[in-house]
């Protein structure tokens, strides 16, 4: 059992948690660790750190047993040491360190579809919002996500908790410029729709069954006029006055579920 907060593994895990070691990611919590264990390759999970608290939950004990069977580096830490490591107020007692998954154009192109539904997140800088949007995107049947430069790190602990496993399963391209994202869509004949307050059409008036991409801007300022003009069309979500805007995660969800309705996305597919 590790009883010192200055242990080298614990110090390295904190550095990963704080984004100082970008080649790895910090995954915490029973459900999220279970999602990661299913979605990631066995060799990608480099370390498992746990406290005895995780053994109090039957599912936690089963997860730990499964991880042990794959011969990963598994380390027990005292509750005090684990608390110093945890990124949550109520630690559940398990953390995984894993190789950062690839998020590239090549990744986005894996298993290409005839009628893609893409989501372009431009400078979404709140990690909780970014995570919530990814979770909604997977639920609504989005086939790929592009995050532009200046967006939040979707593998930060807060973003991962918000996405609850969707980050590991979606096809994602990060670090693209806005121009690269739009050019990618145009060259592949994917029609782009920018979300803004005074859009040309209501989100329900768009034909989402064809190849298309929803483009949303930052929480604070949205998309610039030049960015809106770079897309094929703009859309708005009708709202009762005096409300003029919605949280970006909520707004994105409203639009994506209209797309899902038109595409017939269901839990059976």
Q: Can you walk me through this structure?
A:
The protein folds into 2 domains: 8-99, Ribosomal protein L30/S12 (60s Ribosomal Protein L30, Chain: A, 2-Layer Sandwich), CATH 3.30.1330; 105-263, 3-Layer(aba) Sandwich (Alpha/beta knot), CATH 3.40.1280.10. 37% of the residues lie in helices and 19% in strands. The protein has 11 helices and 11 strands. The chain has a 7-stranded parallel beta sheet with strand order 7-6-5-10-8-11-9, with helices on both faces. Strand 2 (45-50), helix 3 (58-69) and strand 3 (73-76) form a beta-alpha-beta unit. Helix 2 (30-39) packs parallel to helix 3 and helix 6 (127-139) runs parallel beside helix 7. The radius of gyration is 20 Å and the shape is elongated.
| Overall geometry | elongated
Class per helix and strand makeup: alpha/beta
CATH topology of the largest domain: the name is Alpha/beta knot
What level of helicity do the residues show? 25-40%
Estimate nothing, just give the exact number of structural domains: 2
- The appropriate CATH architecture of the largest domain is 3-Layer(aba) Sandwich
DSSP strand content: 15-25%
Biggest beta sheet attributes: 7 strands, parallel
Distance between the termini: 45 Å
Q: Summarize the helix and strand pattern as letters.
A: HEHEHEHEHEHEHHEHEEEHEH
**Total strand segments:** 11
Mind telling me the CATH superfamily name of the largest domain? Answer: SPOUT methyltransferase, trefoil knot domain
